[in-house]
Amino acid sequence: MSKKQCLLVRYRDFLPVTPQTPIITIGEGDTPLVRSQRLEREIGCGELYFKLEGCNPTGSFKDRGMVVAVAKAVETKNSAIICASTGNTSASAAAYGAVCGLTVFVVVPKGNIALGKLAQAIVYGAKIIAINDNFDKALELVRALTQKHHIALVNSLNPHRIEGQKTAAFEIVDALGDAPDYLFIPLGNAGNITAYWRGFVHYKQAGKAKSTPRMMGFEAEGSAAIVRGKVIPNPKTVASAIRIGNPASWEKAVAARDESGGVIDYVTDEEILSAYKLLAVKEGIFGEPASAASVAGLIKKAKSGTDFSKKKVVCVITGTGLKDPDTALQSAHTLPEIPADLETIEKVIAQG
Ligand code: F0G
C-alpha cells in the first residue's frame, strides 16, 4: 500500500470536498501505469502504457468515482444508495456503502453480469434486485425511483462520480510529466471517457499539463449506439460490462471526442477477445473483456494506418479479469488428468 494520501485528500482541490465531507477510503486510486514490454514494439508505438484500474480495491475504476459519490451521499444525510449496473458499479457501490453503513440497492440485468461482480455485491451485503431486462432498463428504473424516494443515485449520472473518476487522468499526467498523445478507453455508459477528458482539461487549466490527449473511445460492435448514431434496443457483446445500448453520457462523450480531436469507434467481439488474450500472454495483464476494448481499438487503428511510432499512448485497463472467470475458462482446453508421479510429469514437460 502506498504511503500517499487517500484520493479525497490528495486531489481535494479538484474535488467537491468540503469541511463537512467525510474522508473515507478503502485504498482507491494511485494505480500503476506500466510500460508495455512487448506490444509497444509489435503494434508500433513510440511509448505504450497501461493504466491498471483493476488494481483498485473492488477491481475496477468505479472506486474513484464511488468514493466521492458515497462521501457526498453521507454528507447530505442519505442512509441509502442505489445504482443500475452491468456489475462493476454495483460491486463498488456495495463496498463503499458497506464501509459507511448505508443500505445499498443494486439493480442488475438478471443472468447478465459476470460472476465475480455478483459475488462481490453479495459478500459486501448489498440488496440485489435482478431484473428480467437489460442495463438500459435498469438505469431508467433507478432514475425514476430516485426521483420519488430519498435514495442517492450513484450511477455516473451523479456528477460526483465523474469528478472522482477524472483523478485517473491526473495520475497519468503526474506519472508521465504531461498528457499522452492518445488515450484509448472502452466506452459503455460513456461516464469514464467524460471523466478522463474533464481531468485532462482541468489539469491543463491548472498549469499541471501542457497538452491534452486525443480521446479514443471504443464501444463493442453489438452495442455501438454512439458510432451508429441510434439507440440499440438489444445490445449484445461478450464484454458484458459495456453491453449498453443507450449511453447516459452520450453527448458528453461526443464532446470529448470532438474537443480532443479524437475518435469513437467500435471493435468486434473477436477483436476484444483477441486483445484480451494478447494482453495476458504478452504483457502478463489479466483485464476483463470490456477492458480489452481499449487495446483492441489501438490495434484496429494501427492496422488501418494511423502512425503511432512517435506517439505516447495510454490504454486504460478498466477492470480485472478475475471478475469474469466464465469468459476466461471458455477458452480453456479440457485439462487432462495426470497421475501424480515424477516420470509422467517429466514426459509432459519434455513435450514443451
Ligand atoms: N470497463 C469496465 C470494466 C466497466 O465496468 C465499464 C462500465 C466500462 C468499461 C465502461 O465505462 O460506462 O463509464 O463508459 N461499467 C458500468 C457498470 C456500466 O455498471 O459497472 P463507462
What's a concise summary of this model?
This protein has 15 helices and ten strands. The chain has 352 residues and is of the alpha/beta class.
Rg over C-alpha atoms, rounded to the nearest angstrom = 20 Å
Mean pLDDT, rounded to whole units? 96
- Count of beta strands: 10
Question: Order of strands side by side in the largest beta sheet?
Answer: 1-2-10-7-8-9
How many distinct helices? 15
Characterization of the model:
- This protein has 15 helices and ten strands.
- The chain is α/β, with parallel strands linked by helices.
- The chain has a six-stranded mixed sheet with strand order 1-2-10-7-8-9. A four-stranded parallel sheet has the order 5-4-3-6.
- Strand 7 (182-186), helix 9 (191-205) and strand 8 form a beta-alpha-beta unit.
- Helix 3 (62-75) packs across helix 4 and helix 8 (167-176) crosses helix 9.
- The radius of gyration is 20 Å and the shape is globular.
- The protein starts with 6 loop residues before the first helix and ends with a helix.
- The model has no long low-confidence stretch (mean pLDDT 96).
Features:
alpha/beta; 10 strands; 4-stranded parallel β-sheet; 6-stranded mixed β-sheet; 352 residues; 42% helix; 15 helices; 14% strand; binds ligand F0G
List the helices and strands and how they pair.
Layout: H1 7-10, E1 33-35, H2 39-43, E2 47-52, H3 62-75, E3 80-84, H4 88-99, E4 103-109, H5 115-123, E5 127-131, H6 135-148, E6 152-153, H7 159-165, H8 167-176, E7 182-186, H9 191-205, E8 214-220, H10 225-228, H11 250-260, E9 263-267, H12 269-283, H13 292-303, E10 312-317, H14 325-330, H15 342-350
Bound molecules: ligand F0G.
